[in-house]
Amino acid sequence: MIVVTGATGNLGSQIVDQLLARLPAAEIGVSVRDADKAAGLAVRGVRVRTGDFTDPATLEHAFAGADQVLVVSASMTGDAAVAANRAAVDAARAAGAGRVLYTSHQAASPDSLFDPQPVHAATEEHLRGAGVPFTSLRNGFYASTLGYYVGDALESGTLALPADGPVSWTAHADLAEAAVTALTTEGTLDGITPPLTATETLDLADVARELSDLTGRTITRVVLPDDEWTAAAVAKGMPQRAAEFTLGLFRASRRGEFDVVDPTLTDLLGRPTATVRSALEGMVAARG
Ligand SMILES: NC(=O)c1ccc[n+]([C@@H]2O[C@H](COP(=O)([O-])OP(=O)(O)OC[C@H]3O[C@@H](n4cnc5c(N)ncnc54)[C@H](OP(=O)(O)O)[C@@H]3O)[C@@H](O)[C@H]2O)c1
Q1: What is the pTM for the complete model shown?
Q2: Which of 104, 192, 214, 277 could be joined to 120 by an S-S link, Cβ 3.0–4.6 Å?
Q3: Is residue 285 domain-resident?
């Protein structure tokens, strides 16, 4: 059995959908925090069990009988995230899984300026010493992240954010497909993978140009000083910690941490990866 965590989240749900197209439902289990949210999967024959990384005792039941566990990195930050991810890895090993897969990030590094990257690096360090075969999927930066900024840009006509750098924005669907291929094709993507990225990098000036082109309106990229952006974000209701977290993204991107493309994902899919333009098209269309 393959057990997938985070299956009520964006990536995990797409992974399970794609697994269901390749395997009988009886071979798929999910570990979720809220089983009610996974009721649709239970109806389709998927084994649904409750598991929370912060309560490792729950994982024993959730992971029981798993040959492989795909640990979707918890949507948490700092030491708590490291502890949660480690607990999930340990529980998968304790359940007797022959392979543990983990959703890392293309820029996992202890020295990153963006908080999630040291978390991923620490989890990978743990995986290396866990004594179980593993795959750490170094997923590209989600293109969906741009959705946080597109609405304001379309309303105001400006993409007003801190200085940034190029990012290889990558689609959830492509990353889900890569994870499913790794889970279902023996010998695929063992160990720490190359960066699983789309094939182009765009900075926010490029994104503003794409948005202008798509909408027929001029969307201007405006570079705000870090402190000015932070103050404005907090004034609009963003908690200070969240603003600082987000600022880390911009600092890391202008240091070039996400300015990486690699052919592995395209090769694995056997087709071109989704473009940023298609992601932006969806975001513009969703706003009517
Ligand atoms: N590559 C990137 O650019 C990028 C960007 C952002 C995040 N990420 C990472 O990728 C992960 C998956 O992305 P996503 O888009 O699917 O995010 P998402 O929709 O927020 O899903 C995160 C999943 O983690 C689960 N989770 C949170 N805390 C947990 C815990 N203590 N124990 C067990 N599960 C827990 C959530 O459960 P519920 O459904 O119950 O809430 C949810 O299913 C994120 O969690 C984050 O670590 C990567």
Answers
A1: 0.97
A2: 104
A3: no
